[in-house]
Write a structure and sequence with these properties.
The structure is a homodimer.
Chain A (H helix, E strand, L loop, with lengths): L1 E4 L15 H14 L3 E3 L7 H13 L6 E7 L11 H8 L4 E7 L2 H6 L5 H17 L3 E7 L1 H7 L1 H13 L4 E6 L6 H19 L3 H5 L2 E5 L6 H10 L4 E4 L13 H11 L13 H12 L23 H6 L22 H14 L8 H16 L8 H10 L11 E11 L5 E11 L2 E9 L2 H13 L10 E9 L10 E9 L2 E9 L2 H22 L1
Parallel strand pairs in A: 1-2, 1-8, 2-3, 3-4, 4-5, 5-6, 6-7, 7-8
Antiparallel strand pairs in A: 9-10, 10-11, 12-13, 13-14
Helix pairs in contact in A: 1-2, 1-12, 5-7, 6-7, 7-8, 8-10, 10-11, 14-15, 17-18
Amino acid sequence: MQVYDTTLRDGAQREAISYSVVDKLAVARLLDEFGVGFIEGGWPGAMPKDTEFFRRARTELDLKHAVFVAFGSTRKAGVRVQDDPQVRALLEAETPAVTLVAKSDLRHVERALRTTAEENLAMVRDTVAYFVSEGRRVFLDCEHFFDGYRFDPDYTAGVAAAALEAGAEAAVMCDTNGGMLPSLITRTVGEVRERLAVALGVTPEEAVARLGIHCQNDTSCAVANTVAAVEAGVPHFQCTANGYGERPGNADLFAVVGNLQLKLGMPVLPDGCIEQMVRVSHSIAEIANIAPDTHQAYVGSSAFAHKAGLHASAIKVDPVLYNHIDPVVVGNDMRILVTEMAGRASIELKARELGVDLAGHPEALTRVTNRVKELEARGWSFEAADASFELLARAELAEGALPRPFALESYRVIVEHREDGAVVSEATVKVRVRGERVIATAEGNGPVNALDEALRVALARHYPELARFELADYKVRILEGSHGTGAITRVLVETRSTGEDWTTVGVHENVVEASWQALVDALSYGIAHQVRV
Amino acid sequence: MQVYDTTLRDGAQREAISYSVVDKLAVARLLDEFGVGFIEGGWPGAMPKDTEFFRRARTELDLKHAVFVAFGSTRKAGVRVQDDPQVRALLEAETPAVTLVAKSDLRHVERALRTTAEENLAMVRDTVAYFVSEGRRVFLDCEHFFDGYRFDPDYTAGVAAAALEAGAEAAVMCDTNGGMLPSLITRTVGEVRERLAVALGVTPEEAVARLGIHCQNDTSCAVANTVAAVEAGVPHFQCTANGYGERPGNADLFAVVGNLQLKLGMPVLPDGCIEQMVRVSHSIAEIANIAPDTHQAYVGSSAFAHKAGLHASAIKVDPVLYNHIDPVVVGNDMRILVTEMAGRASIELKARELGVDLAGHPEALTRVTNRVKELEARGWSFEAADASFELLARAELAEGALPRPFALESYRVIVEHREDGAVVSEATVKVRVRGERVIATAEGNGPVNALDEALRVALARHYPELARFELADYKVRILEGSHGTGAITRVLVETRSTGEDWTTVGVHENVVEASWQALVDALSYGIAHQVRV
């Protein structure tokens, strides 16, 4: 079974998603922790950002489970494969595997690609063979496979056969327009299996074992279609985290894996990985800056929420009769039973991950659990803000509390759009540092930048190490359930110093105050860790 | 085929949904316009609001297509059916049809209902026969059917048989915990069909024709499961609008109907109804006060959105090759996203969508294209900001430019975190409106809110329609390739007025200035459109 993730390539086609290179590295690490077999990182050559990502991934990504894959296209019509700059860029990504996309619907070959049926087949053969000869594992994405198959089954199956004959590891049937239903998938896979067996001179079982599936969600059946293909013998399936993708999206990795592993008993993930489902899903949503879908199957915060009342006690006695799976298996919780124990266990685990031992301090653990619940009810989220969580956890441990490097008295920020069109920001902070009262003013290119600069000026003499801290990313999310500019704002700040980065969080109805909270945590955490290191 | 909608009963179990009686009447009218065959209105007797709804529905609802249904439970254990107050309330709802829920999983009978297998069957028989004798059409919802069938197939199939023998029109197999997959549905329906044929002494075809299906979405397969049951011969299917329901929800009415009618060629709706899909879906979302899911299959505003650029011209020539259905059939539209790669063709197409004809003005088209490219290079994104794009496009058309309702002289925003911990925001704007210079100051709970308020104060006298504009959403994105708080910020503002919403964009290194730009576009667009209408 090959769990192939394309969150970073096809999933990034979803409107409004725009990952930075650092975001992509973080998503790749999360997917690897979830245990997927393949991570498609992007399209080097076509997107300059992806080229940089592949360069950095070579030294910065250390994958435990996944094979790293670069995506590209078959060579251009009428061009020698080694002369095609896009092919070269793909080779230069230096990934162990590549996935090539090819047209497999004859109408697209003729009308969009404007080349002949035969030249398209030659493009497939040449490009696959070239990458195989360069030592790469090769997958071929057959675009518009199912529509093409309906229009001209010989040609479409022929594209898959050409790729496999040229050495591709799998020919992936892509439902690019997303119009399929499970029964149609089952029927088509059955037919293609027979055709390929004849074309390749192998058994139907051997033929289907070289197919892959990639579904879009335009009929709301992408998950079911993917499962149907796997049930029909297809061992390679392509998904995206949370189903992100163009239009209604792709098959959701988490639902597909949950269904295959927990419903059909297929061991698709390495041991210990499926428990990471909720954490990985929500962390990727945070990085993509998309509010997690509370009603998402398996991972949504409402996925196992039961309206309390009449049946609450029955559910408590026999939870197995009211849930389709035990939610703990995927790292979720049954909502009405969100007991202290459940909350405590995960907080203890999380703290231990960060090197804070709460297990031996049950009272501190209770305080941390209550504090986290109270803050989360007000919009905080520690899923992507480990540094803020660690500060909070240590604060409740007498011997573990990190010293706060300064105390705020007040700040003031002014933003002016002047008559001449100039926009200026200025911040003044008044703080106490090691017994000294310091007032500092700085300008910035925005209110948060001005605050950050003023705070650095105020602290510079006492904490010269601050100069090394760089604000690497800054994310703002308006929390739902509140209105327009009067809404609650959550800010995530990522700070980087030599060899380390950390994320902190702030929540307030005022974006400047929320940013301030995250900045204070960022500097506090960094100073404490630099001192300790 | 029986299209049975339970938006108003089971769908109302979704967290945060709370319909008034007037809301329920409006939703029922919309569902009827969509052409469903049955509308389950609620549970009279159990919910006082539902009792009132059924009373008012008798005089105020004039359904063209649908049969009105009340929901209730079989009689209590050990009580005569005519003595059960819940049964009486159901009768008094005076609907032509009733749906009764019964336990069909023996474990639930024994552990939750705390009665015997035989008494539960008697409850089913008695209650069905009673309502039939009162002239009602009766459906029986077999709760936990699939889990029960796996545990004890004889008993579970026996509950369905008992209902049908007592005169029920259909026995509905409910996947209450939502754990099924299409292949499991197909297999179970095949088995139940044979068992019922034997029990009822009819042919398997006649037996399956008396079954119904009701699926929850916990495996993300509710739509596929429903379609699988119908393909296996089940003619009665229960859905909710937009898939609203408990936990991950129910099978989405719109996707199920779209799949059956447009993919499998089954005529499930009366003529002229399927075109209402988008309107009905979005109207129900508004009434439920849930933001429409932009990525929902068939009806989402992104369901047929294509990233423009390289392929725009191909899509223009052959839209049928790039969409799984013609979006117009369900009342949707193909949307072309204006992205970095946009060329003239996609800009022209996009402008046409918005009612701006650039095709006849090649020089204006060039200016718009260049302007979009220049702005996008600086971080603008018009993908989700149609209103800003329209303002920009019209500005380049001499005869089409929308008048700017005011001109900015300057603004100033102050955010203070005071010594007592209070955080306050205050904004002053100086603008010229219709020849008059206006200065206004307002406070807000954040800098952008303060600016918005101050601008509204300044413009209120000249543009009273502003009072109707509500800031519905506010998104902030820090663009990459820039650093931390010194980064370029992109703000998207969604504004809503009666029956319309529009999105605008602003980009600046200063988040306040970026927000200001988006706010100005939002008000300009809204004022211009209100004036034109």
